[in-house]
């Protein structure tokens, strides 16, 4: 055997033996841990589309102080100057929904006397005694909107044109929008009676369909 070939083979054998002795055992790769399920986000009170609706609030959460009621801006200094509802509501006529006050009865009885102007106590409120009738489809009675009870303590600008355009046919009304706090739902369910009081709005009976003429 060639001496050079023998030395090369010997060196290769020694190297291979050394590598085999010093090599670290191969550990099978561990599978990557499964990604942890994202923690359920805490449910915000505003995530409920009916959160605005006082009818859906537990009795202990109704009529909270203005800074806590979810309606007023707690960052506004004027909010903290307002009276807490429960400090005055017990003396007012009771209702079964809204903020549990019958405001129309309170107005009629003179229990509350809204002012037309914050600075001028002599300013007279302009009351509009006008009913708007909206014909509705199906078997429900038509809706009667009385301006009188609203304008006895609200200015026209509270609703027009921001909420309702004062033009016949310009406002597409829907119960879905009202339930989401739009249109009538801006007040009803928050302050005024709840939309669950169906007959307070749907108050005009429809004319029965005339019998077909005999042939």
Could you report the average pLDDT, rounded to the nearest whole number? 80
Q: Roughly what fraction of the amino acids lie in strands?
A: 5-15%
Beta strand count:
3
CATH architecture of one domain: Alpha-Beta Complex
- Fourth-tier CATH superfamily name of one domain: Cytochrome C3
Question: What's the helix count?
Answer: 5
Biggest sheet details:
3 strands, antiparallel
CATH domain class name of one domain: Alpha Beta
* CA(first)-CA(last) distance: 130 Å
List the helices and strands and how they pair.
Elements: H1 3-22, H2 77-81, H3 103-109, E1 131-134, E2 142-146, H4 147-151, H5 175-179, E3 202-204
Antiparallel strand pairs: 1-2, 2-3
Question: Care to describe what's here?
Answer:
By secondary structure, the protein is mainly alpha-helical. The protein has a domain at 93-204: Cytochrome C3. It has helices spanning 3-22, 77-81, 103-109, 147-151, 175-179, and strands spanning 131-134, 142-146, 202-204. Strands 1-2-3 form a 3-stranded antiparallel β-sheet. A hairpin with a 7-residue loop joins strand 1 and strand 2. The chain is globular, with a radius of gyration of 37 Å. The model has no long low-confidence stretch (mean pLDDT 80).
